[in-house]
């Protein structure tokens, strides 16, 4: 049978790619528009062979690939993809369902509920976020942390409009100047006119100060506005800073606002007891929390887990069923339809890949995997500290190391980073910390070992030497 043969050959091609990844430059160097010049301008009239297609993949696609699974990919945040997740995704493709409602395929809905309870327990989240926690809460898989932020904001908006009778134009959302741009986008989509980006300071570790938040909410209320949503962060995109979630959620609750915890990247580190004790206390004060299993936790994109303490307002915001359109009228469903917890109707069977990862690795191995990245990052930090041409720009956390060339101007720092990336041997991106250009090294690739990080650091030192010479 054709699929059997081609399928096996695809598995071979996948393994070959993964095993020879290091021969590719990490970052693609093609110019914009390179591909259309190389490909025909129409689809073929008659079938082509897999061999022809795979030859084109090598010749035309690979040059335009930035290799996110490369062990020397340190840009943005990792999006690691594992064989167990690929197997789960393959099965999902084969089953080919559109599981919008429970009866669209009961197992798809029910596995998602069970697996998100597993995932929540694995991260030691408070019971109120479990489907079995008794508060009407539970988890759902969203495509991305941006979607999770949007639906949490829509739930908060509905709650404020229905419960407090607030006028839509009076609603104010709060986030910090370190927040991901997805908060601004969520406000644009939801028609929220007021978004306060509360200022953070280096002295507070770029975290939200409860007193500053209190003052901002009080001032807005005095002006006749309604605080309704707080986006708080565990692991900012820029430096992996952590807000004091319990304290700021208490402020938000006093002013009637919903607290959403964006732990898109860092949330999975809650599975490590030491990390949990340090950064993940008091989460029961939040109304919703999101983390991407598709960043650090071996689940192929897309798999953002969103947990809510009480799904009622989410369903009120997103369900077309009339019973949810009226505040206070709580109907317990016979079964759960995840279409009422998200923006689109259709949804893939994404719980499979998470289930496969949790089972084929087991909790112990995943914890060891994440700890390995933390240890690798800590070892890099030691090397940075030992070289006085460099300085750390922020406290390293969750595998993210932010550093810069001591005394370099932004222009020099930018040029230096570009030389690292142009080498093809590593790929890093920058952020701005305290107004200054800063290089970020996010460690967390599936294949990233100490030898990769160490050789990248040697390359960086060598380029710094050439600069001085
Ligand atoms: C990566 C990230 C996001 C965006 O995640 P998507 O899943 O791509 O939408 C949002 N917030 C934080 C803190 C992130 O690290």
TrEMBL record:
It comes from the Eukaryota. One of its GO terms (molecular function) is carboxy-lyase activity. Pfam families: Pyridoxal_deC. The modification N6-(pyridoxal phosphate)lysine is found at residue 295. InterPro entries: Aromatic_deC, PyrdxlP-dep_de-COase, PyrdxlP-dep_Trfase, PyrdxlP-dep_Trfase_major, PyrdxlP-dep_Trfase_small, Pyridoxal-P_BS. GO terms for cellular component: cytoplasm. Keywords: Decarboxylase, Lyase, Pyridoxal phosphate. The keyword Lyase applies. GO terms for biological process: amino acid metabolic process; carboxylic acid metabolic process. Its cofactor is pyridoxal 5'-phosphate. The keyword Iron does not apply. Belongs to the group II decarboxylase family. This is Tyrosine decarboxylase. The lineage of its organism: Eukaryota, Viridiplantae, Chlorophyta, core chlorophytes, Trebouxiophyceae.
């Amino acid at each position: 049978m054709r699929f059997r043969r081609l399928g096996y050959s695809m598995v071979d091609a996948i393994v070959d790619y993964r095993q020879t990844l290091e021969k590719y430059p990490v970052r693609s160097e093609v110019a914009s528009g390179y591909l259309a010049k190389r490909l025909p301008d129409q689809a073929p009239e008659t079938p082509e062979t897999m061999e022809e297609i795979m030859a084109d993949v090598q010749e035309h696609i690979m040059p335009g690939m930035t290799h996110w699974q490369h062990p020397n990919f340190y840009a943005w945040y990792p999006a690691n993809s594992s064989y167990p997740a690929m197997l789960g995704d393959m099965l999902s493709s084969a089953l080919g369902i559109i599981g919008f409602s429970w009866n669209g395929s009961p197992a798809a809905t029910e596995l998602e509920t069970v697996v998100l309870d597993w995932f929540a327990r694995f991260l030691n989240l408070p019971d109120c976020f479990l489907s079995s926690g008794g508060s009407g809460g539970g988890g759902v898989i969203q495509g991305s942390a941006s979607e999770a932020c949007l639906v949490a904001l829509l739930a908060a908006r509905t709650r404020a409009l229905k419960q407090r009778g607030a006028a839509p134009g009076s609603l104010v959302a709060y986030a910090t100047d370190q927040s991901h741009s997805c908060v601004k986008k969520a406000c644009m989509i939801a028609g929220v006119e007021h978004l306060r980006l509360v200022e953070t300071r280096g002295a507070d570790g770029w975290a939200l100060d409860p007193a500053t938040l209190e003052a901002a909410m009080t001032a807005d209320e005095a002006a006749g506005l309604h605080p309704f949503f707080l986006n708080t962060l565990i692991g900012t995109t820029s430096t992996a800073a952590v807000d004091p979630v319990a304290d700021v959620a208490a402020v938000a609750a006093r002013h009637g606002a919903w607290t959403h915890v964006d732990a898109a990247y860092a949330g999975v580190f809650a599975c490590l007891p030491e990390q949990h004790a340090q950064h993940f206390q008091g989460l029961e004060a939040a109304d919703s929390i999101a983390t991407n299993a598709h960043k650090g936790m071996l689940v192929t994109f897309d798999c953002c887990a969103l947990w809510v303490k009480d799904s009622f307002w989410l369903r009120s915001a997103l369900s077309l069923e009339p019973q949810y359109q009226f505040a206070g009228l709580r109907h317990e469903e016979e079964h759960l339809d995840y279409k009422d917890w998200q923006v689109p109707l259709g949804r893939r069977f994404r719980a499979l890949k998470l289930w496969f990862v949790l089972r084929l690795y087991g909790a112990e191995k995943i914890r060891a995997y994440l700890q390995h990245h933390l240890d690798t990052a800590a070892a890099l930090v030691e090397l940075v500290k030992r070289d006085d041409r460099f300085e750390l720009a922020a406290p390293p956390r969750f595998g993210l190391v932010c550093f810069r060339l001591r005394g370099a101007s932004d222009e020099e720092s930018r040029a230096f980073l570009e030389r690292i990336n142009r080498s093809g041997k590593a790929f890093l991106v920058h952020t701005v910390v305290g107004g200054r250009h800063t290089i970020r090294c996010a460690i967390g690739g599936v294949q990233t070992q100490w030898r990769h990080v160490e050789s990248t650091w040697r390359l960086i030192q060598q380029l710094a030497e050439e600069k001085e010479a």
